[in-house]
Each structure stands twice: as C-alpha cells, then as structure tokens.
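Researcher: I'd like a candidate sequence for this fold, 560 residues long. If you have to choose between options at a position, lean toward the conservative one.
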C-alpha cells in the first residue's frame, strides 16, 4: 500500500477536518488518471452521502467531452490503493471510492481526541475551522422591549441568533453579539405616569421587568378610559427627548434593572451578549444628520404636510397601503439609501412563525411560563424512575435543562424559514428526534466510563488498537464523527441550524444501534484491548455529540 504525500488544496484544513485529507487523496487519484484535471478542479466533485458508498465522483461534471463512463473506466484502471483509499469501482459515469478502514478509524478518532482534550487553550475545538480568520461580524438578535416580560415572540430570534453567534465563532470569525433593545418611546412616559400611581421600589428591586410590566398593564387600563393619561405620558417622554435629567434618571434606572434581569433570563438559555444597545442610542443629532443627508440626496418629499421617504422598492406595504417599520428597520434601510459602503454586507436572517404556542392550559405565554412548564413535564417523567431520580444531585436544574433542550430542538429541527406548530407532547418525548432524546444519548455515553473503571485510564491515543473496531456499526459511527466539521462549515454558509440538529440525531441513532453489537462490559479477559477500543470510540462519540449540542446552545448533561 502506497504512502501518499497529499498536495495542498486552498480552503481545506486536513489538520482540523480529516475527511479533507481523504477527499484530497481521491482527487489526486482522479488527477493522476486524467491529468487534464487538476486536484483543485476535482476536489469539489468528491462527494459523500450516498448510502453504502464512502465517496463518489461524477465524471460528467467536468465536461471532458466524450462518454463519462469511458473517463470513469480510466480512473478505475489506473487506481492504486494507498493509505487513504482502498478501492475504486465504476458505475456508469461514476467512480465510487471506499476509504481505507484502518486509516479512517485511527485518523478520525485521534483527531477528535486531540482537538477535544489536548488543545493549547484547553477548550474543545473539534469541528471548528479558520475559514473566517481575520473577518468581523456583528450579529444582532433577540431585541426585546425594555420593561416588558420576555415574550415567546422573542424566543425564535434568541435561539437562532445564539446559534449563529456560536457557529460563526466555530468558523473562525471575530463575533460581536448585540442585543438592540426597544428602550425608547412613549411607553416610558406611560410607565413613569403609572409608576407614580402603582410603583413600588421594593417590587422593582425584586423583579424589575415583571413589576414594570404590571405597572404598564395597569396604567394602560386607566388610559383606555382617561385620555389625560396619554397626555401626561407624552409630556413625560417629551421631557426625556429634551434631555430632562430627572426624567432620564428614572428611565436609566429602569433600563439598567431590566438589562440585569434579562441577563439572568439569557444565562438560563445559555446565551450571552457582548453589547446591549438600543433605540435610545439614536439621538436627535443623529436623526437630524440622517434626515439632512436623505434630503441632500433627493430622497425626501412632502406629502400632506409630512416629510416622507419612498420605500416602495423595499416592498414593505400592507394591503391598506400603510407602512409600519420599526426604528431598527428604518436604520437598516437608511443605511442602504444613504449609500454607506457597508450597507451591502448587511443581511437579514429571516425565519418562520411559531404556531399555537401556549401553556397546556391554553393561556397566553411569557418565556418564564414556557420554561417552567417544560421543566415540570420533564420532572414528572424523571420521577417515574425513582432510583435514577434520587441519584440526581439537582433534579430541578436537570429537569429545566432537559425542558430547554426540548424547546430549542423543536425550534431548530426544521429549516428556519418554515413555520412550525408548537407541540408539548412531541417535543418533551424521549423517543423520536427531540431534545430529551439527545440528552438521553449524551447521558448514556457519559455513564460508560463510570460503569467500566477497570478499563481506565485508557492508553495514549496512538496506542489504542482501533483496528480491532471491525464491526460495520463502528465504521458508520466513525464516518459520522468525521463529517462533523463539514456540518459546521455548511451551517455557517447557510445560516441554518437544522443541519446541525439532523447531524446530532443521526449520530444519536448510530450510537443507539451500536450498543448491542459493540459491548464494552463483560468481555473475556483476552478481549480487554477490544473493550478499550470500543470505550474510546463511545467517548469520542460523546465528545462530538456534546460539541454539536453546545453549538446549538444546549448544555449536555452527564446524568439524568
């Protein structure tokens, strides 16, 4: 078997994604048979994903002229097995390649172990790459309104935005996560008027968001029967706009207390922001500068005594002919209209709606209600096994994490552009492609070391006898582990979390299928190296499943 010095291909990182090395080796085989094609030209056509085949190359894509099956035959005729590829077979105009199993098992598992457990900064890095090195990105998401409880309407933006922050970092980008808050407007005048009547400093200190929301609801009820409340609110907000320090002092306190409470909410969701900004940061001077610029460019016209900007090309109209846009949307559109050079690099990552989201009792929901309900359901299910439940150190925290996993996986399982129906019974099931199922798979993998202390410590990675992993289930699992870096790259290119969810589910199912054919415990004394190789395989699978879960902002559990 030949040892191959692989050529370099731009955009590949074999040291971080070992399948890149196998693809390059296959591209080199095709190039050697068909020298008119370079390795770089062939590489994008080396594909996997067909059941029962490691990699396939369709010769027709290269437009060589003549019959693709004749070109395919040339490739198979000149094929030479090497440390990466053991066979090539022709099927019409396709060449199917089988990887060298011994190399696949050892190279993949060693890379997973090295990039998970032996990195310089001691952080798991398997799946990451440097494609975004030197690039900067701001991801703006969540954006709740200050003094209002975190509503489920903010949930999708928060979950998807948190994922995008993680996946861009994993692809080497320098990421700033920004929360652009709704922290300005007449509603603060309403809250100020309401606080004088209904406010409590004690309740404010205890839970600022809940108390300010309660005040807001009560004063709005008053305002529905008393127009003077609106007048007082407008007058108060005018004081804020004019820079009245006494009015701004209250607003700052409410804003700061609300942000602290939001940070607690986000921490529970495993989300963190680098910057909290908001509509209040767009001052009167900034607005005047923007308006003057738009006038100078001839984009402003008079209509019925008002100054208007034609936004027709942005297709924001409703059937009524009216427009509603937020300050945030206007800020983005103005950036494009005013020809800022960076405006073309702005991208709106859209997503579908959540349909039918409510508690089991059918009540309107805030995030707290949803998390509490999900945790309650999971706790009930956990308590059905009293022995395991009693072994859990903090069952409240564990049930909450499983509940959050259920919520997040249901949200990210389908393509983000699609609407989805919120379904309590489906998402909280331990069967099927759900968050609880992922947690169960990870917990089961985490328990394997505890159940096999006699096999520990494992030998160094280069001493584990991976050639003893001969079962097809082991090979299938290893190939999946090898594909994870590709999953991370594609997720970033498409701004799409569903592929990561699909990968995590496939891996969990492959792990489940491997338990019986690959027992670790109970083997004969002369099979100890087989047991160690299998244990290492399952631990590597745990590491990669955990990496995928963390990419989805899910905290992998060790026990449940």
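Model: Candidate sequence:
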């Amino acid at each position: 078997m030949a040892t191959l010095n692989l050529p370099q291909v731009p955009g590949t990182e074999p040291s971080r994604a070992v399948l890149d090395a196998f693809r390059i080796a296959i591209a080199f085989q095709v190039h050697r048979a068909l020298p008119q094609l370079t390795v770089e030209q062939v590489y994008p056509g080396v594909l996997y994903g067909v059941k029962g085949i490691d990699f396939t190359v369709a010769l027709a894509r290269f437009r060589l002229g003549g019959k693709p099956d004749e070109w395919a035959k040339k490739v198979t005729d000149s094929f030479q097995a090497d440390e990466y590829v053991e066979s090539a077979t022709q099927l019409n105009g396709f060449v199917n390649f089988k990887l060298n199993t011994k190399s696949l098992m050892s190279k993949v598992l060693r890379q997973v172990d090295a990039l998970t457990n032996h990195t310089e900064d001691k952080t798991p890095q398997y799946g990451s790459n440097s494609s975004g090195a030197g690039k900067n990105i701001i991801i703006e998401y969540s954006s709740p309104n200050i003094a209002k409880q975190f509503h489920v309407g903010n949930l999708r933006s928060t979950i998807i935005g948190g994922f995008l922050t993680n996946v861009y970092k994993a692809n080497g980008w320098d990421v700033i996560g920004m929360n652009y808050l709704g922290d300005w407007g007449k509603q603060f005048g309403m809250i100020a008027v309401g606080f004088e009547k209904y406010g409590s400093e004690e309740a404010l200190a205890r839970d600022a968001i809940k108390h300010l929301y309660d005040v807001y609801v009560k004063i709005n009820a008053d305002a529905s029967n008393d127009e003077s409340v609106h007048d007082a609110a407008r007058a108060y907000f005018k004081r804020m706009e004019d820079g009245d320090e006494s009015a701004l002092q209250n607003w700052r306190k409410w804003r700061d207390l609300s942000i602290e409470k939001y940070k607690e909410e986000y921490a529970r969701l495993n989300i963190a922001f680098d910057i909290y900004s908001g509509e209040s940061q767009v001052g009167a001077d900034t607005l005047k500068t923007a308006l003057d610029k738009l006038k100078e460019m001839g984009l402003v016209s008079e209509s019925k005594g008002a100054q208007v900007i034609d936004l027709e090309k942005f297709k924001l109209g409703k059937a009524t002919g009216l427009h509603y846009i937020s300050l945030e949307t206007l800020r983005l559109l103005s950036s494009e209209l005013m020809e800022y050079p960076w405006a073309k690099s702005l991208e709106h990552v859209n997503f579908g709606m959540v349909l039918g989201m409510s508690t089991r009792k059918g009540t309107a929901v805030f995030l707290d209600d949803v998390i509490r309900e999900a945790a309650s359901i999971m706790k009930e299910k956990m308590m059905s096994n009293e022995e395991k439940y009693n072994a859990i150190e903090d069952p409240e925290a564990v049930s909450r994490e499983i509940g959050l996993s259920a919520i997040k996986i249901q949200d990210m399982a389908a393509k983000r552009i699609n609407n989805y129906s919120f379904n309590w019974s489906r998402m909280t099931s331990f069967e099927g492609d759900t968050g609880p199922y992922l947690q169960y798979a990870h917990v089961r993998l985490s328990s394997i070391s505890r159940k096999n202390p006699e096999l520990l410590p494992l030998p160094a990675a280069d001493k584990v006898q991976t050639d003893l992993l001969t079962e097809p289930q082991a090979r299938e699992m290893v190939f999946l582990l090898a594909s994870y870096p590709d999953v991370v790259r594609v997720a970033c290119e498409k701004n799409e979390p569903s592929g990561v969810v699909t990968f995590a589910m496939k891996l969990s199912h492959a792990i489940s299928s491997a338990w019986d054919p690959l027992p670790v415990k109970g083997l004969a004394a002369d099979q100890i190296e087989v047991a160690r190789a299998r244990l290492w395989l399952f631990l590597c699978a745990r590491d990669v499943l955990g990496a995928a879960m963390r990419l989805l902002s899910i905290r992998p559990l060790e026990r449940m």
